[in-house]
Each structure stands twice: as structure tokens, then as C-alpha cells.
Here is the input.
Amino acid sequence: MLTSSENEETFLATYNKREFDAPLMTVDPVLFTYHEGLLKVLLVKRSNYPDKGLWGLPGGFIDQDNDQTLEQTALRKLKEKTGVSPPYLEQLYTVGNAKRDKRSWSITICYTALIAHQICEAQISTVIDAKWIMLDDVSNMTLAFDHSHIINTARERLKQKALYSIVPAYALPETFTLPELQHLHEALLGKSIQKKSFRRRIDQAELLIDTGERRSMGSGRPAVLYRMKKDSGKYTFVRNLEN
Amino acid sequence: MLTSSENEETFLATYNKREFDAPLMTVDPVLFTYHEGLLKVLLVKRSNYPDKGLWGLPGGFIDQDNDQTLEQTALRKLKEKTGVSPPYLEQLYTVGNAKRDKRSWSITICYTALIAHQICEAQISTVIDAKWIMLDDVSNMTLAFDHSHIINTARERLKQKALYSIVPAYALPETFTLPELQHLHEALLGKSIQKKSFRRRIDQAELLIDTGERRSMGSGRPAVLYRMKKDSGKYTFVRNLEN
DNA sequence: CATTAAATATGTCTTTAGGACACTATTGTG
DNA sequence: CACAATAGTGTCCTAAAGACATATTTAATG
Here is the structure.
């Protein structure tokens, strides 16, 4: 196909013949948050064929008239459900094959997104078709399409990031304490971290700003509240080799 | 769209109306090799509208009748040009926006691929529309679409991999020497590496098999030929933190 | 055949940074 | 005021990379 078209008119004539079997094209963001010591992911209940009634990712089709980029599609779909745009959005990977959707060949571009629970709590609690689901419960649910697999991949990638960056901090409120961040990392890694090592690495990388304020969690010494240096665009706190 | 379709028939009726403006969908592999101390990338001369006559990536449209997955599309396109399937193929990222192709909204799923130069030298030299281009020359060329940017991204990702893995070794023949591998890594990183550190890390990770053979490059002590442990599926040679 | 040049390979000391864990600091509570 | 609970630090140990000198093995040369 398209072997002999040499100008736009010829191309369009040829291409339109192909469109009858153009693949399904969607964008699927995996939005994580961290609240009350638990990792959660945003799911929505499907109202259409196929897999109607099942829970799945808050994705959808690209709106070619209004979305200029794939990221805009991801943000638009998230805003529909949460009311806001997440501060962190990064492309995860793209799945495309003939089997994942019973309708036809199907492609979805997946994103990992992070947001503070408090920012969208109000909006989400008003709609009945969107919910935060504990990540540990997701493995026991039957989700639409291959969304379980996509969520696992996103979680695995976020786990890797927890080893060398403070990207997970975007799942926390704007200000947060180091113990909070450490617990989030421990939840992602599935094991405890040496407090001293964790703090040392973050200190040396100069990724956080001391707000001067403190927060007390009941009894015990209050923890210092930090804020991310967002201007730097730098998240990693382990050295590069061979520098 | 698709808000009220509840079964396959309704869906198809609705979906077919959308197809007139379905986005363009392509797969674009960036195939690297390393030969005579130089990094090279495979480019093909476009024979069709748009950007006819410009060089670009050896990509193309998904063949829904024959490709079962996106990887199969990538491999098929590479095989058309090189005659073989590369031993390393990994998804890079997906670009999708309204501007990258003058025809319409366009999406391309990009892959990084690596292959030994000798394996496809014969086939490539027979066709006039495919060529190995030195990576350093690519920045001075005007390529089709946003292919320059895609190649830069692929190179940057491969550079990162050179810091902690021996994935670049797939750009070498099946057996290779450690000095060869080091020079390849140095070409990717753009600076010299401490020989001892490099060898120590690779030794400890046990990623290579000593073939027992040696290869002499003119004068000087011959270097031991190694082969990758392919069964292990393990490429990284730096420790994980918090293990 | 001895010497040298060139390349591969290793020995070893230094430096850096994370692991372990004891210790100090600051709060609320009975 | 003692004590529990949580936050944060001091310090020694260990692992691994950096730096660089040294040894090894080959081809080339006179």
C-alpha cells in the first residue's frame, strides 16, 4: 500500500481505502496516589461494549479535533475523572496487537501519572463510576482488556524509579516529610529501607527544599516538611557511573 | 463518541463513521550497529509523499492481516531492508501529535534495535535505498518527519544503557573482545572509560562466556573472545541499591 | 634471536558512598 | 517527670568504583 502515491491527492485517495480497518487507538493513563500508607490506582467502570461493567483504566480515544498531542489526550481523560491535571505524567509504553481487544487490532499508549490524594478526593467522591482502588486488591480483580497487565508494568516501573529517584513524591501533597516519602518508597519496593542511607542520598542530591515548617503525627518528634525543587527537573539521587 | 453503543453491532456502526479521520499509524525502528570504530544507523530513502527523496527511518504501516504485534511490524520492516531479524529489539517510545505529519494526526511507535554489521552488510549493499549512516553525520542531515529527533532519543537511551548494561554488545558480532565492547561504550558515552572498572563490573556480573579463543589485531597481545550469556536475559552489571 | 612497540590484562592503593546500628533530639501522654 | 514514640544524626564497616602502575603476550624490526 502507498507504494506509488506521489502527492497528497493520490495519498488521500489511497489512504481512505485503508481506513475501513484502521486499528483502534486509545490512550490509557495509570494514575497512582498514596494515602494512609497505601498505594492506590484510579479505576473507572466501563459503560460501553466491550467489557461493559468491568473496571478499567481511565483512558479513551484521541480527539483529533481538540488534542494536539498524546499527552493532552491523557490529561483530558484524567481531568474528566479527577477534575485536575496531575503534576507528573510520563509515557510508560505502548501495547499493540491483534488480540487485546475483541473488536479488532488495537493499540493503546499507556502513561504513568501521579497525584496527591487530597487534590482530587473531592471530585472523585462525587462520581460513582471512578474509584481509588488499593493496588494490592487490583491483582484479585478482573479488569477490562489487558489493564491488569498494564497496571503491573506501571507499578514495576515506578518501583524502579523509587530506587534512584524521588519521582514517587508526586503522589504526595505539595509539602511532605521524609518519613512519609520513605514509607511510600518502602511500599513500592516491598521492603524496608535504611533511614540513614535514604536521607543521605536525598540530602546530597539537593532535590528538596526545607520549608521551615514541621508536622507532628500525634506523639513523637515532629518531622520537617519539605517541598520538591520543581524548577530543576532533576529527580535522581544516585550518582552516575563514569562521570 | 461511543457513549451509547452497547454491543458489537452498534459499536461498529459508530466506529466506522470515525474511520474517515483515523490517525496515521506507523512503526519506526532505529537500527544501530558498530563497525570500524563508528556508530551507524540504518536509513532508507523515501520513495513516496510526503518528504519524498529524504532519508528516514526504515518504518512503515502496520499490516493488520499479517502482523500480530507491533514488534512483528518492526521486525518485518527491518527484514525487508536488511534481510534478517536483529537480535535486540526494544520499544523506545511513541510520538503522536497533530503536527509531525503534514497529512494528518500521526502516531508512530518507535523501537531501538541492534545488530552486528557483518550480518546484514551483504543485503544492504545490494539495495540503493538503504544505507548505514554514521551517527555523527545524521545531525547534519535533514531527515523525513521528526526522525532526527527520534534517532537522538534512541541514542540517548542507548547511552544510558551503556552506563549499567552490556546491551550495546548486540551491535557487535556474536563473539567479541572486551576492548571492542569498551570502545563501543566509549563511543556511546562520548568519553573514555577506566579499563579496570569496566572489566571488573562485567566480570562480577558474569554476563559473558569466555570462548577460549583469541583474536589478534595486528601487533599486541591477542584479546580473549567472549560471547553473551543469552539464556540469562540479564544485561546489567551494576548492583541494585537496597538489595 | 634479541629488542621494541603495541595491545591486552591484572595488582593494588585510594576514594566514594551505601549498610548497619547505636545514639541523640523533640514531641505527646499518663 | 518518666516514658513511649517518632524524627534525625554519628560513626564505623563494607562494597565497589577510580586511578594508575605493572605484567603479559603478541608482531615487527634490525
Observations:
- Confidence is low (pLDDT under 50) at residues 1-6, 8-20 of chain B.
- Chain B touches chain A through 58 residues (CB under 8 Å).
